[in-house]
Design goal:
TIM Barrel; 4-stranded mixed β-sheet; 11 strands; binds zinc ion; 11 helices; globular; 41% helix
Length: 295
C-alpha cells in the first residue's frame, strides 16, 4: 500500500461480491409479504373489532395483490410471495392466483407470530401447522422462509433445515447470499429496502410514520439498486401489498422494475432460484469479512 497517488476523477471500481449467472452483475429478489389482516391480529386479537384498521390491512390481499400481479404479468418478472397461512385460509383463491401466475410462495408464520415470543416447541408447532395448511389448502410445500418481522431465534436455522427448507430470507448481516453450516442458504435483506418504514401509518393503534412521497422512495431504492449493482450484490426488496398495492406506489414499483430491467445485467429471480444458484456454486461468493469468513 502506498498513499498519495490519487488522480482526481478516477472512478472506484469495486470487485463484485458474487459471481452471478453469465452476463448478470447482480441479483434482484422481489418479495411481497402478504401479511394482510395478520398485521393487526398478531398484535392483539381484540383488534379484530377495529374494522377500519382491519380493512386497511385486508386491502393487501383483496386489492393490492391483484393489482401487483397485473404489473408483474405486464413486466414479465418472477417474484416471491411470503404468506402467513392464516391469510392462505382466508384468501385461498388469491393464493391460487399467485401460484397460477408462476410466482413462488414462501412460508411466513401462521398468524405472523413474532418468533422471539415463542419457545422452541411453539416455534416448531407453528411451522408444522403452516406446512400442513399449505399442503391441504393449496397443495404446495414451500422451500423458502421469511420470519415475521425478519427476526429469527437461535434454533430457527436448524429447524428450517430439519423441515426441508432450502433457504431463509431473514438475516441482515450481508448483502450477498451465503450458506449456513447445515447448508441452508441465507438471502439477506435490510430495512432500507422495505416499505413499512416508508408508507405505514395507522391512527389508533398508532403505527408507522408520516407516509413518504413516492419520488423520495424511488430515489432511495434506485440509488441502492445502482450501488448494489456496482458491488455485485443481491437486491432484496420487501413490499407489503396493503402498503405498496396503493395506486401511486404500484406506479413507483413499475418505474423501479422497468429501470432494473433496462439495466440488462440484473438477474431478477425468485428466492428458490437464487438459493439453487448458491447451492450449486459454493465458490461464487467473494468473502470480505476479515474475521469470520464464510459465516
Ligand atoms: Zn410480515
Amino acid at each position: 500500500m502506498s498513499f498519495g497517488r490519487f488522480i482526481s476523477g478516477t472512478p472506484f471500481t469495486p470487485e463484485p461480491r458474487f459471481q452471478w449467472p453469465v452476463g448478470k452483475r447482480c441479483a434482484v429478489m422481489l418479495c411481497f409479504d402478504v401479511d394482510g389482516e395478520t398485521t393487526v391480529l398478531s398484535e392483539e386479537a381484540a383488534l379484530a373489532g377495529r374494522l377500519t384498521t382491519m380493512s386497511q390491512c385486508a386491502y393487501g390481499p383483496r386489492v393490492g395483490v391483484p393489482r401487483i400481479l397485473g404489473l408483474l404479468d405486464h413486466l414479465e418478472v418472477p417474484s416471491t410471495f411470503f404468506i402467513p397461512t392464516w391469510i392462505v385460509e382466508q384468501h385461498p383463491k388469491m393464493t391460487g392466483a399467485i401460484m397460477d401466475a408462476g410466482h413462488e410462495i414462501g412460508a411466513h408464520g401462521h398468524l405472523h407470530e413474532k418468533l422471539a415470543t415463542l419457545s422452541p416447541e411453539e416455534e416448531e408447532a407453528v411451522l408444522e401447522r403452516s406446512l400442513k395448511i399449505f399442503r391441504e389448502e393449496v397443495g404446495i410445500r414451500p422451500t423458502g422462509y421469511r420470519a415475521p418481522w425478519f427476526e429469527i431465534n437461535p434454533g430457527t436455522v436448524d429447524l428450517l433445515h430439519h423441515h426441508g427448507f432450502e433457504y431463509n430470507a431473514s438475516l441482515m448481516g450481508d448483502d450477498v447470499p451465503f450458506q449456513h453450516e447445515n447448508g441452508l442458504v441465507e438471502i439477506p435483506g435490510n430495512w432500507m429496502l422495505e416499505d413499512w418504514e416508508q408508507f405505514a401509518f395507522n391512527a389508533d393503534p398508532a403505527w408507522g410514520f408520516v407516509p413518504e412521497d413516492c419520488d423520495k422512495v424511488f430515489r432511495l431504492w434506485w440509488d441502492e439498486f445502482e450501488a448494489m449493482r456496482d458491488y455485485g450484490c443481491c437486491f432484496v426488496l420487501t413490499l407489503h401489498p396493503w402498503l405498496s398495492g396503493r395506486p401511486s406506489r404500484v406506479k413507483l414499483l413499475e418505474r423501479l422494475i422497468t429501470g432494473i430491467l433496462e439495466s440488462n445485467d440484473a438477474w431478477v429471480a425468485t428466492g428458490s432460484e437464487i438459493a439453487d444458484w448458491v447451492s450449486r456454486h459454493p465458490n461464487a461468493r467473494n468473502e470480505i469479512d476479515f474475521d469470520h469468513p464464510g459465516s
